[in-house]
Write a structure and sequence with these properties.
The structure is a single chain. The protein is α+β, with helices and mostly antiparallel strands. The chain has a domain of 188 residues. Helices cover 32% and strands 27% of the residues. The chain has 9 helices and 24 strands. Strands 13-21-20-14 form a 4-stranded antiparallel β-sheet. A 3-stranded mixed β-sheet has the order 2-1-6. It has a 3-stranded mixed β-sheet with strand order 4-3-11, with helices on one face. A hairpin with a 2-residue loop joins strand 23 and strand 24. The longest helix is centred in the N-terminal third of the chain and has 39 residues. The protein is elongated and about 115 Å long. The chain starts with a helix and ends in a 15-residue tail after the last strand.
Length: 428
């Protein structure tokens, strides 16, 4: 007897229903077993399968074994740092900075996966570890103060202050000494760049080439390249002593100074305050036309000597004040007084090229030389001429070509007073 279509259909349904039930039962059994396993792992001393220590499998291991693996990893990753500059090498060892791998921390992280949550969450995390894997990174710590100390020691062997180009004048010969570029290792930036490699143990395997910053000098070789002659010079005379010491200090302060084309030079800004802390002594000064004693007495002789050299060099005075009464070291109308905070002597370089100041105070002679480019004066000779009386002189700057006057500049008319009785003062 043949089986009817209805019977065939029912048989299929029966088999299908029965199969699904069996499969569901099987899954349930596996699920219960897996949950039981998850619960067992969570309460045991083994690391979940799929966990790696910097790529090395440690799943199924206990803490002690895993720590050994992490310790071996650290030994492979930790090594000295080697720096190099201009062929010289500098080494910082792990011991120098107390570089310490955090083995216990990494082991605890590896051990924590699949633990600490509910049975279901532990099971889910264990499954993810088994199928997807988990890689535990080994970090480290170090003493940043020790690293800074080591980098500073390296920098001390590399750093170099910039050196200005210098002009020297002897007789009729100008000697030009080239500048030197300074170098400075940025240890703060270097320490910051090493922070991540040290804490993650991704240390550079090769030599680290150091690149210190270049520090340009204030006066470069190029700045003095066009200087070829003395444009103007002037000398005055003084007596040695406290006043002479003050003259030497101020002369030294303005010497070896570059005034670039279009720049303005300030005597007070360059010399600074005339105080005891700055090395100045008490000597004769003038205020309100009265002689007195104060720190920096005699400095006006330096500003006055400079003023005359400026005029003869073809530079442009922009701020100048005469004394209350005539000075003994320059002719009437040729002085330039200064005082801290309120009287300054300034000039501007209107020439096409830079000029360079040299001031010398030796024995009893003060000399100021202004070096520059001879062509800037167009071959002219400069003379300072005076009209009027000593008490009211008018000063002119006259430019000559041979005996011919190219131009004559009126500079100023001064009116001097007679000396007054002594009083406390601050004007030199």
């Amino acid at each position: 007897m043949e089986t009817s279509e209805v019977e065939k259909f029912n048989l299929k349904n029966f088999l299908s229903t029965k199969g699904a039930a069996i499969a569901a039962a099987a899954v349930a059994v596996v699920g219960v077993g897996a949950l039981a396993t998850a619960s067992s792992v969570a309460s045991g001393d083994k690391i979940v399968l799929g966990i790696r220590a910097e790529g090395q499998p440690i799943g199924g291991m206990n803490r002690t074994t895993a720590e050994k693996i992490f310790t071996n990893v650290a030994a492979q990753k930790i090594h000295p740092l080697t720096f190099r500059y201009e062929g010289e090498e500098f080494i910082i060892t792990p011991e120098d900075i107390n570089l310490t791998p955090l083995v216990e921390k990494a082991t605890q992280e590896a051990f924590s996966y699949g633990r600490g949550g509910s049975t279901i969450s532990n099971f889910n995390e264990q499954i993810r570890c088994i199928f997807n894997g988990r890689n535990v990174k080994l970090d480290a710590q170090y003493d940043s103060a020790l690293l800074d100390e080591k980098l500073s020691a390296i920098a001390a062997q590399i750093n170099r202050d910039p050196v200005n180009a210098v002009c020297k004048f002897s007789g009729d010969v100008i000697e030009k000494i080239p500048s030197v570029i300074g170098k400075k290792l940025n240890t703060q930036e270097l320490a910051e760049n090493l922070k991540a490699p040290l804490t993650t143990l991704n240390l550079p395997t090769g030599i680290i080439d150091l690149k210190p910053e270049e520090i340009q000098p204030f006066i470069t070789t190029e700045d003095i390249s066009a200087i070829d002659s003395v444009l103007g010079s002037f000398s005055t005379y003084y007596y040695p002593g406290d006043r002479g010491d003050n003259i030497w200090l101020a002369a030294n302060a303005i010497s070896n100074k570059l005034v670039k084309s279009s720049w303005t030079f300030s005597f007070n800004d360059t010399v600074g305050e005339r105080t005891w802390d700055a090395g100045y002594k008490v000597a004769g000064v003038i205020i309100n036309g009265r002689p007195a004693e104060d720190y920096g007495g005699g400095v006006c002789q330096v500003s006055s000597t400079l003023y005359n050299a400026v005029l003869l060099a073809g530079l442009t005075p922009t701020e100048r004040t005469p004394h209350f009464y005539q000075s003994t070291y320059v002719a009437p109308g040729r002085d330039a007084t200064v005082a801290d905070g309120y009287l300054d002597f300034k000039f501007r370089n209107d020439l096409p090229h830079n000029v360079y100041l040299i001031a010398e105070a030796y024995g009893s002679t003060l000399s100021v030389y202004i070096l520059g480019t001879k062509a800037d004066l167009g071959g002219a000779d400069i003379a300072i001429e005076r009209e009027g009386s000593d008490m009211s002189p008018s000063i002119y700057r006259v430019w000559y070509s041979g005996n011919d006057v190219i131009k004559s500049e009126f500079l100023h008319t001064d009116v001097y007073e007679l000396p007054k009785p002594r009083e406390e003062s601050r004007q030199a």
